[in-house]
Amino acid sequence: MRANVITLAHQKGGTGKSTLAWNIAVELGLKHKEYGFKDFIFVDLDNQESVTMTNRLRMQYGQSPLYIKRFSDCEGNEFRDFVNEIDDDTLVIIDSGGYDADLNRLAIIASDFVVTPVSSDYMEIFGLQKFKNILAELSELKGEGEVVKVNVLLNKIDPKAKAFDDIEEFIKDTPYFVLMDTIIRFRSDFKHSIGYGFSVAELDRNSKATAEVKMLVEEIEKKAGLING
Ligand SMILES: Nc1ncnc2c1ncn2[C@@H]1O[C@H](COP(=O)(O)OP(=O)(O)O)[C@@H](O)[C@H]1O
Ligand SMILES: [Mg+2]
Predict the structure, then answer these.
(1) How far apart are CA 96 and CA 228, in angstroms?
(2) pLDDT class for 117, splitting at 50, 70, 90?
(3) Percent of the chain at pLDDT above 90?
(4) Residue from 73, 78, 23, 79 nearest 49 by CA
(5) Average pLDDT, stretch 64-69?
(6) Is 5-223 in CATH node 2.40.40.20?
(7) pLDDT per position as a tens digit, 55-64
(8) What does DSSP say about strands 39-44 and 68-70: parallel, antiparallel, or unpaired?
(9) Residue 34 to residue 28: CA distance in whole angstroms
């Protein structure tokens, strides 16, 4: 089945949700008609408003902005109504906040495909352990033995690092997590491009960051059923 609600989620802050949501959104947003969607909406739930502010820079630098809907922590009912009314012809990308909140939980439940960025140091396992408890609770809400699974994406990885045994072991043993094939390395282009409201590809089509985001988009296209393959 074709997914149409894709969310970046993790209750830990600073792992790259907004940065990657932005880059994925620019790429998928440009292609949404190719996938057969009529509309594309970006939803900003993060109280840091990172993507909303990036979109403003984007306009200042002369690019056409993304269509963004924002919901704040006190707009839970509005977000619930919005989620219930999403139709199958609309592609929705959601950036959620790096903390545990009803809004962020609702986004996970409402999603067909969740990406959870983490880096590879041992502390990240503690963060995932906490997130695991949230996913266990959400799975219980769904009932009928359903498990809420998220796709863990290694992000901000030292370009020289090759082995990620600890985190791989942890993910393998946890029913709520699936490790993505793509690895996004620590690349300064992610910071630079945001300063212009660009994606990394718009900043430099030939950079390593661009190649990695392209791999990520292709993996999402396949696993979320946006294209056949
Ligand atoms: N792959 C990456 N390489 C370099 N810096 C990154 C990368 N991903 C994210 N960052 C940086 O990490 C910081 C936190 O990212 P952000 O997207 O705001 O995280 P979150 O939304 O999860 O809180 C930002 O300064 C961002 O520029
Ligand atoms: Mg964020």
Answers:
(1) 28
(2) very high
(3) 93
(4) 73
(5) 97
(6) no
(7) 999 999 999 9
(8) parallel
(9) 9
Q: Please, which pLDDT band fits residue 229 given cuts at 50, 70 and 90?
A: low
Q: How far is the CA of 37 from the centre of ligand 2 (A)?
A: 26
Q: Is the pTM of this model over 0.85?
A: yes
The pLDDT tens digits of the residues spanning 140-160 come to: 998 888 999 999 999 999 999
* Sign of the CA dihedral running 147, 141, 153, 128: negative
Ligand 1 atom closest to the Cα of residue 19 is 17
Atom 13 in ligand 1: residue holding the nearest Cα = 14
Is there a contact between 93 and 23 (Cβ–Cβ < 8 Å)? no
Q: Give the pocket of ligand 1 (CB within 6 Å).
A: 13-19, 50, 98, 155-156, 184, 186-187, 190-191
CB-based contacts of 193, cutoff 8 Å, min separation 6: 23, 199, 200, 202, 203, 209
Q: Give domain limits for the chain.
A: 5-223
At position 78, the amino acid (one-letter code) is E
For a pocket test of ligand 1, which of 17, 19, 187, 213 has the largest count of ligand atoms closer than 8 A to its C-beta?
19
Considering every ligand atom shown, identify the ligand nearest to the alpha carbon of residue 19 and give its number.
1
Query: pLDDT per residue over 176-197, tens digit each?
Result: 999 999 999 999 999 999 999 9
Distance 45 CA to ligand 2 centre (A): 9
> Which tokens in the block code for residue 180?
């993505």
- Residue 67: what residue type? Y
**Residue 213 and residue 173: Cα distance in Å, rounded?**
27
